[in-house]
Write a structure and sequence with these properties.
The chain is mainly alpha-helical. Helices cover 44% and strands 9% of the residues. The N terminus is likely disordered.
Length: 112
């Protein structure tokens, strides 16, 4: 019987594995993030309109809230862990940390 990865918290892509943070942690941190979206701090960050990862300008409706250390990896909804990023970068980042993304880029360059 195949594993239901959504229920076990195990995710595999390109042979990367991790055990997800407990569901209670993720739920609590998502609620905190929801509260932060209503703050002046977040509105100012969003108003700047610059993606944290690609540093390009984007309209507000194309920007999202991202956790630098993903909630699924045990990250928290704190001002130091939340950034504004474009939807494209957020989709590309998935559950990875910025360091893991850089390692993937280096790895792909070596195979070219």
């Amino acid at each position: 019987m195949p594993l239901n990865r959504a229920k076990t918290g195990i995710y595999s892509q390109d042979m990367d594995f991790f055990v997800s943070a407990p569901a209670e942690h993720i739920k609590k941190q998502r609620n905190i993030a929801r509260e932060l979206r209503a703050t002046q701090w977040w509105k100012q960050k969003l108003g700047a309109g610059i993606c944290y990862y690609c540093e390009k300008r984007a309209p507000k409706d194309e920007l999202t809230m991202d956790h630098v250390v993903p909630l699924a990896r045990g990250g928290f909804s704190t001002k130091s862990n939340i950034v504004v990023c474009c939807k494209s970068c957020n989709t590309q980042k998935k559950y990875y940390t910025p360091a893991e993304l850089e390692l993937q880029k280096l790895s792909s360059r070596e195979t070219e």
